[in-house]
Amino acid sequence: MKVSSKTKTKAKEIDFRAPEYYFNRELSWMKFDERVLSEARDKTLPLLERVKMLGITASNLDEFFMVRVASLKDMVHAGYKRRDIAGLTPGEQLHELSIVTHDFANMQYSTWGRSLLPLLKENGIRIISHHEELSDEEGEYIDRYFEEQIYSVLTPMAVDSSRPFPLVRNKTLNIGAIVTPLKSANLLNNGQEKKKDKKGQKEAKPDFAMVQVPDVLPRLISIPSDINGKKDSEKTFIFLEEVIERNIEKLFLNYRIECAHPFRIMRNADLTIDEDEAEDLLHEIEKQLKRRQWGEVIRLEVEEGISPKLLDILVEELHVEDRDIYRINGPLDLTFLSKIASLPGYDELKIPGWTPQTPKYMKTDEDIFTQIRKGDILLQHPYESFEPVVDFIRTAARDEATLAIKMTLYRVSGNSPIIAALAQAAENGKQVTVLVELKARFDEEHNINWARTLEKAGCHVIYGLVGLKTHSKIALVVRREEDGIRRYVHLGTGNYNDTTARFYTDMGLLTCSEPVGEDATAVFNMLSGYSEPVAWNRLSLAPLWLKNRFLYLIEREAEHARAGREAHIIGKMNSLCDPDIIEALYKASSAGVKIDLIIRGICCLKVGIPGVSENITVHSIVGFFLEHSRIFYFLNEGNEEFYMGSADWMPRNLDRRVEIVFPVEREELKADLKHFLSLELSDTIKAHVLTPDGSYVKPDRRGKKAVNSQRELCREAKETARKRKETVEGRRFIPEMSPV
User: pTM for the complete prediction?
Assistant: First the structure.
């Protein structure tokens, strides 16, 4: 695209850092959760898929409050008034977020109560929202269930002069009540003198009481189908808190229950760790995890019809601001919806499950190291199986030729086969070094346990660099072979988690390239010691020089455009909010570079600004799988370059984390990535497109082919697997690889 000299001159006068050219990060994240909510409202989706999406919005919002809203509150308390890239102070952001999140919660519960709940009932899944809806027979069953299964687990807590207000734990569901001692309860009332009304008659003093809804019991209680003569195909559920509320007088004998209502709080869960002062990072994080339960209350959810008297007590005791109170018209905490969405049966109400296929460039009957020596292997999860990654570590652990295994772990599954393989490798006498990132948010306790497991097995466990999270995804296997030492490397865009690999879209590369192997060795030497090489071969690392590398690549495309050559950038990532990167993209767009961005979540960049971002498009795909891969494409005057890695274009990734971005150099793999990006950019079903006013809309499908990129990638993976099974003269279908 050619740009006139007049436009070039004009571009020099533009202030690309003007606040009006940027969206606020937190408000942009809320736009993402709105896109997820739009899937829950999409009537073309199967019902239980919509239910699942609504549950995801709830868990997303919980984490957003515990981390992002909490961080803003900390800034306000500290008197921090610096404006963000969109020109908002922390206080102004909290004000805007309060409006948006209240509206969002109302939309969540409107979707639940007016749409999904009635549809579930129509399809044989009845959910009783209030215990008053129970029939006499159902009520009798539920009361027996309470006495036999629930009563002994509960701990009723009264509050008076000798019993202080109890600790309300983060994210727990509780029932608060106003109770009045009966006349016969003088002993239990601790001899409190009764108040007198105007007529001089004795009046009982009201007290607050509470019971936590135990999370060790199922939130949804199933009522047998034979009650009321229901059909076997129908399922009826009632909420645990409704059963407790129905029977709450059994918990507070000798008291009259004036009112009882559920409530739930969210606390500041962002850990503050002084790594320079911590003698033992593992023990320091353990201490901070315990303090998480005492964090500031940043959100209070209450039933819409809650007693004002009860609400006043909660507000006073929990120190909650009015704008942090959310009056909910429905069941508190919608994360239970994942249980509904996964009910057995009801296949007609679900999107059919997906079985990951054997990767395109791999054979099932050949040693994995032999296959890697033949050429780099691209892995596309979950369209293709994660098993080769597990097999890579597992085979190395058992192989006599293996000398050492080194890898980084950020988040792993609860019963990780990779952890088991690493432990086995150490027991087999291999040198095993594992970096376990203890500061992976909300996985801290999980990772502490894995670190201890690995240490007991004989692995050398390190916790990364002081002040930096290690977010890179890299595994190195060192083998002694006939022609000497050879290094095999796996690099990825996602975690070494075999569970999330089934529904996160991620990319991986298996290679034994010597330059990459040298860089991988340098990475681990840097993480475990103080050694940093003078130069790097293929890998780009943050926080060392990755941002400068990206800025160089963007500017190179801008130079091509200024010279009248075609220029194109495609960036796929989870989030974009780094101001230096956005400014570079604006300048490149002004120079005439075509820029297509595929951004799942936060995007602080604006499109369609005259002279600034007219050549930029932003797509966001919200589908059956969670988009998670990071892929970067630069046309480079026809010498196309592709990069993948663990880093988003965010300050935390580029400046405060150890990240790795790596090139993809084999032509076949580059063609696959180009096809992948092209397919996602042509998505007309699951894509949302950013508009100049900041809203996201579905693409205009008039005259266009209906494209669901995720479904098409599943189809292609399945077709490749089918061809693989077809044999012609005993030869399997395996794409040939040309030399680098």
Answer: 0.90
Q: What percent of the chain has pLDDT over 90?
A: 74
Give the residue among 364, 712, 671, 349 at the shortest CA–CA distance from 505: 712
Residues 63 and 442: beta-carbon distance below 8 Å: yes
Q: What is the pLDDT of residues 478-503, one digit of tens each?
A: 999 999 999 999 999 999 999 999 99
**Cα 534 to chain centroid, rounded:** 36
261, 471, 490, 560: the active-site residue: 471
368-538 CATH fold: Endonuclease; Chain A (3.30.870)
Tokens for 323? 């704008």
DSSP output for 127-173: EESSGGG--HHHHHHHHHHIIIIIGGG---EEEBTTBPPPP--TT-E
Tokens matching residue 467: 């002040």
* Contact (CB, 8 A) for 438 and 403: no
Q: Which helix (H) or strand (E) holds 591?
A: helix 579-591
What is the spatial distance between Cα 185 and Cα 577, in angstroms, rounded to a whole number?
61
Burial of 415 (0-12, 13-18, 19+ CB in 10 A): exposed
Helix (H, G, I), strand (E, B) or coil at 117: helix
CATH topology of domain 130-272+299-319: polyphosphate kinase like (3.30.1840)
- CATH class of domain segment(s) 27-129+330-350: mainly alpha
Higher pLDDT, 580 or 163: 580
Distance between CA atoms of 187 and 582, rounded to whole angstroms?
69
Domain boundaries in the chain?
27-129+330-350, 130-272+299-319, 368-538, 542-707
Q: Residue 657, SS3?
A: strand
| CA 455 to mean position of chain CA atoms | 28
Which CATH code of 3.40.50.720, 3.50.20.10, 3.30.200.20, 3.30.870.10 fits the domain covering 542-707? Answer: 3.30.870.10
Least Cα distance to 262 among 215, 222, 335, 210 occurs for: 210
Which pair of tokens denotes residue 678?
């092209």
The Cα–Cα gap between 296 and 129 comes to 30
471 catalytic residue (yes or no): yes
Phi first, then psi: give them for residue 579, nearest 5 degrees: -65, -35
Handedness of CA 114, 50, 109, 128 (dihedral sign): positive
Q: Identify each DSSP E strand in 401-468 by its residue range.
A: 402-409, 431-436, 460-462
> In the 8-state DSSP scheme, what is residue 592?
T
pLDDT tens profile 309-366: 999 999 999 999 999 999 999 999 999 999 999 999 899 999 999 999 999 999 888 8
Cα distance between residue 739 and residue 381, in whole Å: 25
Residue whose structure tokens are 């600790």: 167
* Domains 27-129+330-350 and 130-272+299-319 fall in the same CATH topology: no
